[in-house]
Amino acid sequence: MSDVVPNFALRPKKPTWTHLALHVSDMEKTIDWFETYTHLRLLVRGEVDLAYNAWLGDPSEPESPFVLVLAQFLEGKDPFAPQKHAVLAPFAHIGIEVPEREMIDEIAEKAREGGCLALGPKQMPKQVGYICFLNDPDGNIIEFSFDQGVYHTAREKWGKPDTAQ
Hints:
globular; 3 helices; alpha/beta; four-stranded mixed sheet
């Protein structure tokens, strides 16, 4: 038996997908970008001896949190050096589905004005939907989609189809 005392009492009841992590070059710029172009908001931020860090998430989903972890390693403290940090591109991306088609056009226009629109808006095949791609400050691709079918397909296959929001 371990003598290590857990830091937190509240944990998932089963293995749960909780986060995706990105290396960033400018923490403030990246937090601002995600809060400008997405629904994600700063949950917590900190600094450890290796890096500045932040978690961004959806404040309306506290019962099933999924966070975007950002890390900006301090000069000379990157534990992965000398390896370079990859970016999510050209196809690898973070996907955000929106409830209305018009939102894709609005997001794309805002991104065009902000100089970060990478693709679209564009109607793609059925399992892709209506999409646009944005570049975050480090060049990671963030996809916004409408009518991709993730909610429908998961509820149809795994249950609770009548609870779609």
